[in-house]
Amino acid sequence: MAGVTTGGVALEIEDLAVEYQSRGSTARVLPGIDLSLNRGEILGLVGESGSGKSTLALAILRLLPANGRIVGGRITLDGATDLTALPEESLRRVRGQRIAMVFQDPLTSLNPVFRIGSQMVDVQAAHCDHRVRRRDRSEYLARAVTLLRQVGLPDPEQIVRAYPHQLSGGMRQRVVIAMALSLEPELLIADEPTSALDVTLEAQILSLLREIQADRDLSILFVTHDLSVVAQICHRVVVMYAGQIVEQGRVADVFKNPQHPYTEALLETVPSRGHRGRALATIPGQVPSLLGELTGCRFASRCRYQQEICHTEAPPVVNSGASEAVRCHMRDPSSSFDHELVSSP
Amino acid sequence: MSESPGTPAPHHPATLLQLEDLSVFFPDGGQVARLIGPQRGVRAVDGVSLEVAESEVVGIVGESGSGKTTLALAALRLTRATGGRIRFSGADITHLSGRRLRRTRRHAVMIFQDPHSSLSPRMKVTSLLMEPYHIHGVPSGERYSVAELLRMVELPERLANRYPHELSGGQARRVGIARALALRPRLIIADEPTAGLDVSAAGAILNLLQSLREDYGTAYVIITHALNVVGYLADRIAVMYLGRVVEQGPAEGIYDAPLHPYTRALIAAIPDMDSPAADAAAQVSGEIPSPRNPPPGCHFHPRCPFAVGRCLTEEPVLEEARPAQWVACHRWREVAATPQLPEARRGAETGAGSG
Q: A79 and A139: one domain?
């Protein structure tokens, strides 16, 4: 599989904090996120509902809902632009042109009353520097046809004339991907882009994204709750739990030898082909509420290795095994965690 | 359809639900359009025969548009069948109405896909759980208590006073299951019981259904687009494509040695952690066509890597290829002789590049 060809960091997030206001109380949903996405890399961002993965994706483009705001940290695009400090005017140029986004439900990204072609023309026209003339529009339309062909849609000349409701779910998601590519972004954020699709279509869209990434040397942040999808298309993975990153590293390393107990448990819940008849693994308990004060490790109450220290002290982020960053006392050589009490490795 | 193969030989002693050549046709247009001009519309279910035995779990698998939900609705008489016959516990219920239909519905219930839209937002969990008793006039001696029902689905008792919007997706799903269990039905049809849930929560729901089945001997029909969901629970699996059953048989047979190219494609498309680079797109291209205008012959032929001339014109009928495993494919012998998973998988490792 085509790997990371160019060096450098496409997106660097440092100590990003996001808060939501709700009914007078404040929830710090992301207390300080650090992650980097290398150029030409597909980075998987995984977690269960409530882990904060979608909030993080929205925060990058400053698309948080009205009650949410960034309260600290930096988001640096391509080593130069700090997105948190950018005025709204300049941010408009980043959205779409430099960072494009694909959402779970393609219908929310498409206007039901305009034809596909005119929507794809409008996207290009909206980001054009000069006044758009009729000749430009026909050029844009020709480009739309080319893009639709590139994302594997048969008969793109027909599709530009169609309305969204005339297309199937899989076709719509391809249209949205073509639209996202139309401004030649350097970074694509895909939020559960295949979760609403049938399995055979999911497989098709995943291979499409993989091809696009390799052909265009695009960087992709792939948000999903599905570890098996990460295994299929991502180079590196970031595992989130209750607003924090608990582990990150290369997919091959993390999935083969998970260092955080949550990653380990999450991997066990994935049903495999040879699983028939046996009870499925689950993670008992629930994600803690982020409204109150949280002490210790956020995963402690659900962790099979929990010890006293896990409930009293917040774990540090350390290197462990082949993983780049693990937030766990058990992996911290300097902590008072008692390894004698852990029977299985 | 006179060519219909009839029902596969029953291999369980007592048949609970029996569908015989069932069809559901949704005509286009209004009354006038129907009188003049040719009959057009969607044949959502096209001559399906299926049996469910007492305490058996049958999975119905197919993509959106395959007709699996319509089939379930028709089986419970929640939508009108336009052809065929439905027997429940030996009695023909195809044309039942009124009180006698309601009595049947006490024994055969449905759990709908989206729990939040099937639970009234203005009722607390307590009332939601007791509602089936009021509808069916169940005497108090035959009722479970709210606490008992919550315990059955492993929910804490304190949830009794919550409203549906105060529940998580998994909790709402469990309330839906508890409502179904309240009537002690002999058959539960669950439509996508795990859709939209996290892996861990989905696994917990499947474990719950499995233990309920062991405890109460209820028969289940589980409708899903994900083969791995039923692979875990089902005794038998029926695979649907554009309104027809293309393969059915024991779960092991369907899962481990599928004979229909479509079943194979579905299995290949299951993302698998052990063989990450599996590329199902190599196996099946395109999408399920509109049921309004299905391809002639075998409906699957435009997407099928095995298709030959005959498949374009002649509709395959179900035949018993292996004991109790029925397949509707002209080419199943060739399919069976082809290795199931492509060995030529691109790169065994996903993590390319050096960090």
A: yes
Question: How is the beta sheet containing A25-38 ordered, strand by strand?
Answer: A25-38, A9-22, A68-77, A81-82
Residue A344, chain B, CB below 8 Å: the answer is no
The amino acid at residue A246 is V
- Averaged over B163-173, what is the pLDDT? 89
Distances (CA, A) of A252 to A166, B209, B353: 40, 34, 11
Residues 222-241 of B with CB under 8 A from A: 225-228, 231-232
A175 in a structural domain: yes
Q: Specify whether A142 is located in the same domain as A177.
A: yes
Helix (H, G, I), strand (E, B) or coil at B48: strand
Domain identity same for A176 and A56: yes
Partner A contacted by B116 (CB < 8 A): no
Residues 26-65 of chain A whose Cβ lies under 8 A from any Cβ of chain B? 38, 40-41, 48-49
* Structural domain of A324: 260-341
pLDDT over 70 percentage in chain A: 95
Q: Rounded distance, CA A146 to CA A75, Å? A: 33
Optimal mutation site among B57, B64, B158, B199, interface A, most CBs of chain A within 10 A = B199
Q: How far is CA A55 from CA A22, A31, A266, in A?
A: 15, 12, 20
A210 and A280 in a common domain: no
pLDDT computed for residue B198 by the predictor: 83
The verdict on pTM exceeding 0.90 is no
Where residue A78 sits, what CATH number does that domain have? 3.40.50.300
Contact B350 A235 (CB under 8 A): yes
Query: Phi first, then psi: what are they for A340, rounded to 5°?
Result: -65, -30
> Same structural domain for residues A74 and A162?
yes
- Contact between chains at B272 and A273 (C-beta distance less than 8 A): yes
**CATH at residue B159:** 3.40.50.300
pLDDT given at position B10 = 47
In a domain, A101, yes or no: yes
pLDDT score for A131: 78
Neighbours of B353 (CB within 10 A): 15
Q: Does a structural domain hold residue A239? A: no
pLDDT digits (tens, 9 = 90+) for B246-282: 999 999 899 889 999 999 988 887 776 765 555 544 4
Q: Which residue has the higher pLDDT, A33 or B112?
A: A33
| A187 is a domain residue | yes
Q: How many domains does chain B have?
A: 1
Question: What is the extent of the structural domain holding B107?
Answer: 15-32+41-259
Given CB atoms, is A266 within the 8 Å cutoff of chain B?
yes
- Nearest CB among B198, B203, B270 relative to A273 is that of B270
Q: Is the pLDDT of residue B38 over 70?
A: no
pLDDT tens digit string along A152-202? Answer: 888 899 999 999 998 888 889 999 999 999 999 999 999 999 888 888 888
Strands B41-53 and B15-27, by their bridges, are antiparallel
Residues A154 and A279 in one domain: no
Task: Give me the interface pTM, i.e. the ipTM.
Answer: 0.76
Residue B209 confidence (pLDDT) above 60: yes
Which residue on chain B is closest to A323 by alpha carbon? B355
**For chain A, what is the domain count?**
2
A207 and A273 together in one domain: no
A226, A230, A231, A232 alpha-carbon torsion, rounded to 10°: 100
pLDDT at B327: 97
